[in-house]
């Protein structure tokens, strides 16, 4: 009985740990305000034991659970459906940094700790936690793990999957699996943690994690380079890799429409280019040692490559200004209006052909399209977004047709329709078109084994 469940839930709750009615409104809508649902309540545990008690209670009464971190999902992965027969489990009170182990280069945190807090705790120990993206101040580690988030430093350090050594997870029946091991080598059977990274809370709820830290780089060199084409950008990347190897921390591709949107909506952000180029690359090197030496090395390499319109940051303030251009692109798009967004990955060498062909295919059917392409060229991840003349939600009427153009070409290049944002609600119906029947069978088998009642974040990832 639902009334019995709510009565037991209330008896569990401490003050301020359970929300009902209007107090749940902010939790029921995603940050893009595209998905809005309803919930019985928002439960906010402050320990893994409390989390396990909630899950046990939900399993007993067959109540679906929607896990939510910082609510920064771009695919509706943390938003409930319209039935109102679920509860949201918020991790905002599970926000403790458990341990920083500088000798082992690890940090152990609860799922509700923000990415920014992890970065700051690492810095205080003279270490680096390299994951970084625009929502660092609000996104939580549990959500970052659940979506296998990426960001600007994946080229050197990898996604959240590569940054994770151990997990603690509450399973669908409330059992706590403790895999909090900070080991680089552990060959004792299946690597269970990998099941939960990227699963978007559909297999279990991540409660704590052991994450990798790295020595803190002491030298940085940042540059903005105008290029004529994405092919030139790929050539530059290969030249740099041949000369400086993994010291390339970030390598971002930015198109002219991005710069135009920045100029329109953030005129105070000054670009160093006298005339906005068709394409440009924002890149950063990092290492130990002296920044002046790295600066001179980067400047010399860029001079040798022959790219004339090049700006190497003279100091940290100028480097920060360059990065502010990149970081404000998503907000400039939001201010411009509603767009169709794609978070795709393609083999790096195929990106130039993809961009040329995809633009041609789109313009044939949508001659009014303004394509805003940018992203992490170094690891093959593009954010391929477009506006039509009507910049309202009416554009979603064209979404399926536009997605078909983009995703069919992505599939042609053996790419992925989701690089770092996940599947959520947005792409679950599309997933079956671009993963094989064998892959989907295996996914559903794992889901059935770990969540036989289908209570863990239903309606996400799998149909």
UniProtKB/TrEMBL annotation:
Keywords: FAD, Flavoprotein. It holds the Pfam family FAD_binding_4. Residues 35-216 form the FAD-binding PCMH-type domain. InterPro entries: FAD-bd_oxidored_4_C, FAD-bd_PCMH, FAD-bd_PCMH-like_sf, FAD-bd_PCMH_sub1, FAD-bd_PCMH_sub2, FAD-linked_Oxase-like_C, FAD-oxidored/transferase_4, Oxid_FAD_bind_N. Transmembrane segments: none annotated. It comes from the Bacteria. Gene3D superfamilies: 3.30.465.10, 3.30.70.2190, 3.30.70.2740, Uridine Diphospho-n-acetylenolpyruvylglucosamine Reductase, domain 2, Vanillyl-alcohol Oxidase, Chain A, domain 4. Belongs to the FAD-binding oxidoreductase/transferase type 4 family. This is FAD-binding oxidoreductase. It comes from Deefgea tanakiae.
């Amino acid at each position: 009985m639902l009334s019995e469940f709510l009565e037991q839930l209330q008896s569990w709750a401490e003050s301020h740990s359970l929300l009902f009615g209007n107090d749940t409104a902010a939790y029921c809508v995603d940050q893009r305000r595209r998905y809005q649902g309803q919930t019985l309540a928002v439960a906010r545990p402050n320990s893994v034991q409390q989390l396990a008690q909630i899950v046990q209670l939900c399993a007993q009464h067959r109540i679906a659970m929607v896990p939510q971190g910082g609510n920064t999902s771009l695919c509706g992965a943390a938003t409930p459906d319209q039935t109102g027969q679920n509860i949201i489990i918020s991790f905002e009170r599970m926000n403790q940094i458990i341990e920083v182990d500088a000798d082992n280069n690890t940090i152990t945190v609860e799922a509700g700790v923000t990415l920014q807090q992890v970065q700051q705790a690492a810095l205080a120990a003279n270490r680096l936690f390299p994951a970084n993206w625009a929502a660092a101040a609000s996104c939580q580690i549990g959500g970052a793990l659940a979506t296998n988030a990426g960001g600007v430093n994946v080229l050197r350090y990898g996604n959240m999957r590569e940054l994770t050594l151990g997990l603690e997870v509450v399973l669908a029946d409330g059992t706590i699996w403790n895999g909090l091991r900070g080991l680089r080598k552990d060959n004792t059977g299946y690597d269970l943690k990998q099941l939960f990274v990227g699963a978007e809370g559909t297999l279990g709820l991540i409660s704590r994690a052991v994450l990798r830290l790295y020595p803190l780089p002491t030298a940085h060199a940042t540059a903005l380079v105008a290029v004529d084409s994405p092919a030139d950008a790929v050539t530059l990347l290969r030249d740099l890799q041949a000369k400086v190897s993994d010291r390339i921390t970030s390598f971002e591709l930015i198109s002219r429409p991005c710069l135009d949107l920045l100029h329109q909506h953030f005129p105070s952000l000054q670009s160093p280019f006298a005339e906005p180029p068709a394409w440009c690359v924002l890149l950063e090197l990092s290492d130990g040692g002296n920044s002046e030496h790295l600066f001179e090395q980067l400047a010399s390499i860029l001079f040798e490559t022959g790219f004339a319109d090049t700006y190497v940051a003279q100091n940290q303030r100028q480097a920060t200004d360059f990065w502010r251009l990149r970081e404000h692109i998503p907000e400039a798009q939001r201010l411009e209006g509603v767009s169709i967004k794609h978070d795709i990955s393609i083999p790096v060498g195929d990106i130039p052909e993809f961009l040329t062909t995809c633009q041609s295919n789109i313009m044939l059917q949508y001659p009014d399209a303004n394509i805003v392409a940018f992203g992490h060229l170094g690891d093959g991840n593009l954010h391929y977004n477009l506006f039509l003349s009507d910049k309202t939600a009416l554009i979603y009427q064209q979404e399926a047709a536009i997605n078909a153009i983009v995703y069919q070409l992505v599939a042609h290049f053996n790419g992925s329709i989701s690089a770092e944002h996940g599947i959520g609600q947005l792409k679950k119906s599309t997933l079956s078109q671009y993963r094989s029947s064998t892959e989907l069978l295996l996914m559903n088998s794992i889901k059935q084994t770990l969540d036989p009642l289908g209570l863990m974040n239903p309606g996400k990832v799998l149909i």
